[in-house]
Structure formats: C-alpha cells, structure tokens
Design goal:
The complex is a heterodimer.
Chain A (H helix, E strand, L loop, with lengths): L6 H17 L13 H12 L21 H12 L6 H13 L2 H12 L5 E4 L15 E4 L3 E8 L10 E7 L10 E7 L5 E7 L9 E13 L3 E2 L5 H16 L3 H16 L11 H28 L5 H24 L18 H14 L4 H12 L15
Parallel strand pairs in A: 1-4
Antiparallel strand pairs in A: 2-3, 3-7, 4-5, 5-8, 6-7
Helix pairs in contact in A: 1-3, 3-7, 4-5, 4-6, 6-9, 7-8, 8-9, 9-10, 9-11
Chain B lengths: L6 H17 L2 H9 L7 H9 L18 H13 L6 H15 L2 H13 L4 E4 L15 E5 L2 E12 L6 E7 L9 E7 L5 E6 L7 E12 L3 E2 L5 H37 L1 E2 L2 E2 L4 H29 L5 H25 L12 H12 L4 H14 L7
Parallel strand pairs in B: 1-4
Antiparallel strand pairs in B: 2-3, 3-7, 4-5, 5-8, 6-7, 9-10
Classes of the chains: A alpha+beta, B alpha+beta.
C-alpha cells in the first residue's frame, strides 16, 4: 500500500500546474464547460500537448498514456484551478466511439475530438425521460439509408455552441424499453433541428444557458448510427461509469472548502470573530473530516481505475462529492446568519457566490446520475441487493 | 499510488481472519461479557504471543516483528470484525510504542520482550472526570518524595485494569491546567493504595475506576522525562487512536455485512426488503462511510509511518470513524426490525458497542477541536 504519488506523477502534476499558471486567464475561469472562445482556446492548447487523447492509440490521434493516473491528475488540477476539464467529449463520447463504433467512424471523429475541433452536446434527456433514460420516447424511424426524427429533447446543456449532438433516440418502440434505443452522431446544422434557450437560476450575469432541442422531420444518415442498432442504452450506461469518475473530480470541492475556511478565519462582525466561536470551529472541523473522506473515496476510485473500470467507486465518488458540496454550501451560509441570504452587494460574502453555490448544490446532486441513483448502483453492484429501479443488469464487456 | 495490500499484509489479514473465525465466536464474546472475571481470555492472549502479534510494532532487537502501523491496522481490523475483547490496543500498540519511543535503554530491554512474550499486560490510566480528552484536564497528582513518587487521585475508564500487570499513568507533576507538567509513570497494578471499581457499560466490557491513595512508586517507574509526559505520549496515542479506528471500522464492516445479508433474505410485501430503495439507500450510505473511514485510517497510518505531521489526519480519521461506527451499528440494527433489539440476536453485540466506541478515546467534539486547531489555527491543510 502506497499513498504517495510517484516521482513521475508529481513531475506530471507540476507540468500541468505550470501550464495552468501560464495559460489561465480570468476569461477561462469559472466553468467546466468549453462554452466561450477563451475556454475553447485553452482546451485546444491542452490538445496540442496530447492531453486530450491520452491512452488512445496514435492511429486515432491519441497519444501514449504516460502512466495510468495521468488523466486523473490532469483533471484534478484543472478542476482545482477552476478551468474547463477533460470532460464528456473524451470521457463519454470518445470512449464509447473507441469501444463500439465502426473503423470509419473512429477515423472520422476521434482525431477531431482529441484536437478539440468542434464541441459536443449530450442529447439524451426528455420531459418523460430524466433519471430513467430507458423511457425516452423520441423516435428515429428507419427509412433505409437514413433515420427520420420528429420530437424534442430538453436540458441539453451545450447545444447552443455545439457542432455535433451525441443523441439517444428510440429505434424500436416494440422492444422492451432498454432494448430499443440507439445512439447517433447528429450534425448540429442538420435541417429540421432547432433550439429554444432555457436559463438556470442565478444572479444576472452568472446564469447558465441550457436548451430545448426540437426536431422536425430531421434526417440522420445511417452512417451516423453509433455501434449496433438498439444497443444504445447499454452504451449510455457504460459511459456513465466513466463519466462519473472522469468529470467529477473532488478537487474543486477541496478548493471551495478551503476558501470558506479562510473567509471565516478573517471574518469580523463588529468585533465578533466567528473563529473564536466553539460551535463555528467544530462545524468547520466536522466538515473538514467529511471533505477529507471525499479525497479518500476519490483515491480509492483512481487506484481501482489502474486495473478496471471503477463503476462502484465512481458512484461513491459521485454520491459523496455531491452530498458534501451541498452540505458545506449549506453550512457556510448557516454560519453567517442573515448575511447568508444576500445575493450581492457590500455585505455579501463572496459577492453572492456562496448563495449561488447553495442554489446549484442541489443541481450537482441530481446531475450525471444523481446521488440516489448512485446509491442504487452501489446497493446493486457492490452489495448484491435486488434491483429496485427496474434497470436491467449490464452485460459484462 | 496503490491501495492494494502488500503480499505480507494480505497474508497477515488472512491468518488473523481465520484465527478470529475459529476462536472468537459470538458465544466466546458473550462468555467474556458475562462469565469471565477479566473480560478477556488469557489462553487467547498466549496464542497472540505465539503468533508474534503482541510484538507486531516492537523493534526486532527487542524480540518484536518491527512492523509498521499500517500493518498493525490490517491486523487489528480483523480483531474488530469479531469485536474481540483483548488488551491488545493498550499493551501492544500504546504501551509498546511509548516505551520504544521514550523508554530508557534498560526499560526497553526489560519491558519490551515481556510484552512480546505475553508476560505483561498494560492498562491505560489517562481519562479523569472530564467530558473531553484534553491533557489539561488531568489532575491526578504525583508528588516527588525522595527517590519515590506518591500518587493521589482517580482515573476513569481504565480498560482491563483488573487483568493488567502495569498501569500506564499520566500524572500531574507540574503546572496545573496545562499540557505541560504531566509525567508518565509505569505503576505496578498491585501497588499498595490502588483500588478499582467496575464501571458498567453498554458493551459489558471491563472498564474501571482506579483510585490512587498515597500510592508509592519507585523513581524507576518514570517513563520519559519529568513534566514532559504529554510530548512523550501524544505521538504514541495517535498510533493507538488510529489502531482503534481500524478496530471499530472492522466492527462496522462486519455489522454492515450482517445487515446486508439480512436485507437480501428477509421477505416482506412479497419481496426481499433489500429491494426497497430506502433500505438500499441506508446500506449504500453506510458502506460509503465505512470505506471513507477505512481509507482515512489507513492514510493516517501511512503518514505516521513516514514520520510526517499527521495530527490533523489522525483527528479527522478518529472523528469520522467514530461517527461512522455509531451510525452503522444503529441503522444496521434497525434494518433487522424488532429482532435487532432482542437479547438473543447476535448483532446486538455490535449495537451495544457502537455508541461506546464512538465516545471512547476522546469523543467527536474533542477531535473536532483538534481538527480546528490544525486547519484553522494553522494554515489550512493543503490536500494533495
């Protein structure tokens, strides 16, 4: 058992930190999404270093993995500094293409992803298919050389700046619900595809845009079907295991917690110092232990990842991370008395940023396979309990 | 970075697990609770000695195995799984380590081989009438009188005080209400003026009040330096606390396993109760906490073995492991329904221990104060 990073791991982390010190500007900070020109450029610079395609074969534009934990170290440092991370484009889309798609599709798309050319939207969710993705209804009707789609999706986060959609559609309405879904790559400029914006809650200037996406007799060429028809649900579920792990580094939570402790260290309410108050001290201490447990569960997941897909550990990482993020946003506000409710202005801690964090903490609990869904995965796959959600067991690859 | 056990650790774990399966049944634990005078079994202690376990942390030059705290964590977690009652923690971890760290060459040469051979059992006489675990709260007085010390005062929660040969006593020799002015003394359990009173606990173990009335001990009883007792004790106490966390984590894992097994088998409303999402949520939450506590405990042991400043990690590991074992024993019992509260039900052995483990060796508030000192009063710990 060795909890220390190896010299090569430390050296790589230093390289990443140096890159961030050099390339990070205020315009880059503040979102994990690659949704502004500055963020796109930042990620492209990482792509030039070969950091997006680490671990994928060179014939597809990948680069040799320096060592098993390189991708994790990279993401942790990005997350810690508030930069866009190596997220779904690689973790979900490239991984799935690499495992299941045709040779032509791999040659067409993998090099572009690893060069950061063109962004992607994950176009799964529908009004009647959120957590229960297997219930999605939007049809793709097989017309021979193409599929035709009429219907809609919503909460599609990156749709307003994407070039492609990674889209799940129902291809067999008569099969059991998990066995009639297929994945397609859809060009955003396809005729018949249109958007309507939706906005997340937040102060003016801090909201995120998400989208409704409408399809009216949209045609998808058959060549854009990913892998086999009607296997899409299984591809999605497998990719979620990677995504929970790859996207949700715990590092940003450690960074935010540290910021909060530092704020309380310096806070002074007309001479009343929170840092001298035993309750405040213990509450922050208790949270420190819970944050540390997050780093431990993350370590467990990354160690497992050196040998196999850490499905259960990733679910723990997700469930604990989102729970803790919520807990300490709550705590930070609770300890402030009425000031916790301020959403900006002179007396507002972090200019309203903590209130934002509180509002979005619940979102982190429900996004990317929610806390309770993750617990169901733990119950089923680790503890061997019977299936509560009606999902089929996944085939072992 | 790799969290797989080494081959040696895996072998140690397997041997310990098999031994405990064979010798530390529920019947054995119940017998120790109700029928034994000592609360532990001297035959088992001899077997521990034969396997070398009692010297696991003792340097090889004093007949021990010279293994690390992390190795010890692997061993004691198996003892914890079976809630094995024994003076292992305070003898082979705490006393052995503090003697090895601050004892004179003569003390080391004499006392450590005795521990390894299973000839001497130690009890830890530290806690007094205080909610917390702070050295400032220690009042038991040791007055120097010629070449001797004279002890007056009371110690509480001294586990296995009646079965022990030697008491490791933290006594006040100097400044009051301070971390300074404490001294460690190795006191013969049979010294004149020592009396004990059993303190009944939920787990039916053997905790005692130990009263000292003009107890005279020779100058050779001094362990480490006069008035520097806390400096001598704290590093070893951290090791004992981490070993205790491993023990309670082991107990938590075992109890969680019983509850999970029951949830798979118990049918109500025509299906196993483990199919219900509420039950799944409880069990999933608890296993996350257990993994977290276990990892944090091993991580702390690793940091201590590397000789690094680990006070904050130890405090986090203790605070979190304590809350976890309390929570796991309670909620797991509830999964058994009414049966979880029947005397004949073996899982109640674990239930009765949960809260007590949580509060032992400094309750959560105490360790949260330590965390606060480490992360607020110093620079925030940079987590890497």
């Amino acid at each position: 058992m060795d909890f220390d990073w190896s010299p090569e791991e430390i050296a790589f982390r230093e390289e990443v930190r140096e890159f961030i010190r050099t390339e990070m500007t205020d315009a880059v900070k503040g979102s994990i999404f690659i949704d502004t020109p500055a963020r796109v450029e930042f990620v492209t610079k990482m792509a030039r270093r070969g950091w997006l395609g680490m671990g994928f074969p060179e014939q597809y534009g990948g680069s040799p993995n320096p060592f098993p934990l390189a991708q994790f170290i990279l993401n942790a440092e990005l997350d810690r500094s508030g930069a866009p991370i190596i997220g779904k484009n690689v973790g979900t889309i490239a991984s799935t293409i690499y495992h299941v798609a045709s040779e032509e599709m791999k040659m067409e798309f993998l090099p572009m992803i690893f060069r950061n050319e063109g962004q992607w939207a994950i176009t799964y969710t529908e009004p009647n298919a959120g957590t229960d993705l297997g219930s999605l209804q939007c049809r793709a009707i097989d017309m021979g050389d193409h599929f035709e789609v009429t219907g809609m999706k919503h909460y599609i986060t990156s749709a307003h700046f994407c070039r492609w959609h990674w889209m799940a559609l129902r291809t067999d309405p008569d099969a059991p619900k998990h066995k009639g879904i297929s994945i397609f790559i859809v060009d955003h400029d396809t005729p018949g595809l249109s958007l309507s914006p939706m906005s997340t809650i937040g102060r003016e200037g801090t909201t995120h845009r998400t989208n409704q996406v409408f399809f009216d007799k949209m045609k998808i060429p058959r060549s854009r079907l990913v892998g086999e028809v009607n296997k899409g649900f299984y591809y999605m579920m497998e990719a979620l295991d990677y995504e929970r792990f790859a996207i949700l580094s715990f590092a940003s939570r450690v960074r935010r917690y540290t910021k909060i402790v530092n704020w309380y260290k310096n806070a002074d309410f007309n001479g009343e110092r929170p840092i001298n108050d035993p309750y405040t001290r213990r509450a922050l201490a208790r949270m420190a232990a819970r944050v540390e447990v997050g780093t431990m569960l993350e370590r467990m997941a990354i160690c497992k990842a050196q040998y196999e897909v850490p499905a259960v550990e990733a679910a723990m990482n997700k469930a604990w991370g989102a729970t803790i993020g919520d807990e300490f946003a709550q705590l930070a506000l609770d300890l402030m008395g009425p000031f916790g409710g301020l959403w900006g202005g002179e007396h507002s801690p972090f200019g309203g940023g903590l209130a934002d964090e509180h509002l979005m903490a619940g979102h982190a609990r429900v996004a990317a396979g929610g806390v309770d869904t993750s617990k169901a995965i733990i119950a089923r796959r680790l503890l061997g309990l019977p299936n509560a959600l009606g999902k089929p067991e996944l085939p072992q690859r | 970075m790799d969290i797989k056990l080494t081959d040696d650790q895996a072998q140690l774990q397997e041997i310990a697990s098999k031994f405990m399966d064979k010798h530390c049944s529920f019947d054995f634990v119940r017998k120790m609770e109700k029928e034994s005078d000592l609360g532990f079994c001297r035959d088992m202690w001899r077997q521990f000695a034969e396997m070398g376990w009692l010297g696991i942390m003792v340097p090889e030059k004093h007949d021990g195995m010279g293994m690390s705290l992390l190795d010890t964590v692997v061993l004691i977690r198996e003892l914890g799984r079976h809630i094995c009652p024994s003076p292992f923690l305070f003898t082979s971890v705490l006393a052995a380590d503090v003697i090895a760290q601050v004892g004179s060459p003569e003390q080391q040469a004499e006392l450590l081989p005795q521990i390894v051979a299973g000839e001497k059992i130690y009890a830890f006489a530290y806690q007094e009438y205080s909610r917390f675990f702070r050295p400032e709260h220690i009042k038991l007085e040791a007055k120097k009188s010629g070449d001797k010390y004279v002890l007056n005062g009371s110690k509480l929660f001294v586990e296995f005080a009646d079965g022990a040969d030697t008491l490791l006593v933290a006594a006040r020799t100097g400044e009051a209400n301070s971390q300074d002015g404490l001294t460690l003394l190795l006191v013969d359990r049979n010294s004149a003026g020592i009396s004990t009173k059993h303190m009944p606990t939920m787990s039916r173990d053997r905790h005692y009040q130990v009263d000292f009335s003009n107890v005279e001990v020779p100058g050779s009883a001094l362990l480490g330096e006069l008035d520097k007792g806390w400096e001598a004790l704290e590093p070893s106490l951290h090791k004992a606390v981490i070993a205790f966390c491993a023990y309670t984590n082991g107990a938590g894992f075992e109890m969680h396993g019983y509850a999970t097994q029951y949830a798979r088998e118990r049918v109500q409303f025509g299906r196993p109760i483990g199919q219900m999402q509420t039950i799944q949520g409880y069990l999933a939450q608890m296993i996350m906490e257990l993994y977290g506590a276990d990892m944090l405990t091993m991580f702390s042991a690793f940091q201590i073995d590397k000789g690094r400043h680990a006070r904050g990690y130890v405090a986090k590991a203790k605070a979190f492991s304590a809350d976890t074992v309390g929570h796991v024993m309670d909620v797991s019992s509830q999964i058994f329904g009414g049966m979880g509260y029947m005397e004949e039900q073996d899982t109640t052995l674990y239930l009765r221990r949960g809260k007590q483990y949580q509060l032992a060796l400094g309750g959560t508030e105490y360790w949260e104060d330590v965390i606060a000192e480490e992360i607020i009063d110093r620079e925030p710990v940079v987590l890497t």
